[in-house]
Amino acid sequence: MIPLRAPQGVRYTQQIDRSQQVLPQLRSRAPQSVSHVAAGSRRAVSRRSVRAFAWGTPKTTGPAPGEVLGKDYDQKIPSYNKGRRAGILLHPTSLPGPYGIGDIGDEAKRFVDWLADHGMQCWQLLPLVPPDPMYYSPYSGTDANCGNPLVVSIEELIKDGLLEFSETPPRVPIADVDYPAVAAAKLPLLKRAAQRLLKEDRFTRLREEYLKYRKEHPWVEDSALFDVARNLPELSQLAWWQWPEPLRLRQKEALKEFRETNKDAIDEFVVIQYFFEKQWKAIRSYANGKGIKLIGDMPIYVGGHSADVWANRHLFELNEAGLPEQVSGVPPDAFSATGQLWGSPLYKWPAHKKEGFKWWTARMARTLELYDECRIDHFRGFAGYWSVDANETTAMNGNWRQGPGLELFTAMKKALGAVPILAEDLGVITTDVVALREAIGAPGMVVLQFAWGGGPGNVHLPHNHYENCFVYPGTHDNETAVGWFRGSANDTDKSYIKSYLRTDGGDIAWDFIRACMAAVPRTCVIMMQDVMRLDNTARMNTPGTAAGNWRWRMGDGNVWNSLKKEGEDLRKVAHDTNRLPKPKA
User: Fold this and answer.
1) Is Transferase given among the entry's keywords (predicted)?
2) What are the φ and ψ backbone dihedral angles of 169, each rounded to 5 degrees?
3) pLDDT tens digit string along 357-405?
């Protein structure tokens, strides 16, 4: 009897490999169509059985049985390169930098160098949108298309001649980000640089680039109107639905008058967005040149007090006053016993469908201008989403409602072609979520920190992983591996981990890293905090809490030298698990 699988060590040839494409179909059908009688007697094979084994005449011609094959026959070995890779999750605000926050200047390039030197192939970030002005969450921004001005590099503006070194703010010792202090020190400098670009003759070339950017990105006009309005002294403490009616309702004459009255401030805003665009695209070009892909992050929802909702009221479920009666969130899960009440307005999906999902298509197109790939946060909301009454104080009480499903992604593909999406499919995942993700061919996510409860069938355990996904020791929403193992992990978890990973738990962060790198998912992404073996003082976000998040910073400019040993260890593990970049032909 011919074995369906070759003995270990036997190389499949190109010819045999082609035939194996048929075998999985045969194995799946045979139990229903073939009946066997007792050993030694004649086999009864039904007509249906004959059809099952009737592979048909090959459509391509080849050597006849018994013919001598070419001398290079045994050199035709199939490639087992599955595109395995590894990378780091690190938000630019966490990078080194002298002014209280990481930015997208030289330190971002040094990080790219560190990635490339140590065999990494991707850099995953959190959303780079302007964060909400109260808690500075990048997942509740004021504009889905704009960049965060706080990460614009002062040094890059000095190189362009737009600022003088003598104008820079005092250097700040490395500590957690103090967003209000950073904004107070940095935004006036960005405005000064913008005014110089707009008015001084020596910046003609940059001014032409800025005007080109503005023409090619018409959405920035509404972004500018909204941002200038929300920062006016008389409106700064109000949400847009509390603004005077002509501005709130975007009446044509009111918008015209507002543009004329606030022209300088509007132009300043657009120039600062141009600064972000110019600097970030330089980082992307530099990273791609080093073989590093940038993986962005798109929150499924947008903030209620945002340019997106103000300029597109008809696409959101709002009442006449502009307020949502139902808001977003998720029911109780591993992160929170009372669920997570995000409070964002819900989409009016029939209105999106009526327009051919053009708002979503434009949003994705913008994302792919900035990144090579895109993680969609809360992907499950496209299949079914949790809807909570706006008066609730937790997300425990709500209803599941039908999402747009495959229609949305079909429209995106028709408009944009291939869309490289990573589906964040954590939390309450039902069969329709899996079906949607598989229908569009998007990789999902598994997180090793979630693996240790529920027994050996837990999808997050390495033996249950699948190739088309991303594996993480933990994400930005998790505790660090060290912090979790020391604190939240119970005795049963620890016992299972020690047995499963064959470890004493003394270096749990790297135990998790090695396990993830060795697992079958094509992409392994590791939080920088776990590479550095840090505890929960370095945690980036605690879901269900608003204050105190998004502030962690990794150290000063000497950190790359101090991480040389960890980088070398990463490279060795990447080599051993076939995750190093392949040499270019």
Assistant:
1) yes
2) -70, 165
3) 999 999 999 999 999 999 999 999 999 999 999 999 999 999 999 999 9
Hunting for tokens 């299972």 — which residue is that?
496
Q: Between residues 326 and 40, which one has the greater pLDDT?
A: 326
Distance between start and end Cα atoms, the chain = 41
- 1 pLDDT band (50/70/90 cuts)? very low
Which of 143, 477, 479, 530 is flagged as catalytic?
477
Name the one residue in this structure whose structure tokens are 């150290």.
555
- 103 catalytic per annotation: no
Instruction: Give the whole-angstrom CA distance, residue 464 versus residue 458.
Output: 7
Contact of 513 with 530, CB cutoff 8 Å: yes
Q: Tell me 316's DSSP state.
A: B
Q: Is residue 477 annotated as a catalytic residue, yes or no? A: yes
Q: Is 438 left (phi over 0), alpha (psi -120 to 50) or beta?
A: alpha
pLDDT of 20 above 80: no
Average the pLDDT over 16-25 and give the result: 34
- Identified catalytic residue from 277, 297, 377, 511: 377
Looking at residue 54, what is its pLDDT?
Answer: 43
Mark whether 377 is an active-site residue. yes
Long-range contact pairs involving 228-237 (C-beta distance under 8 Å, separation at least 24): 228/258, 228/262, 228/265, 228/266, 228/269, 229/258, 229/262, 230/142, 230/305
Which of 155, 267, 268, 424 is the catalytic position?
Answer: 424
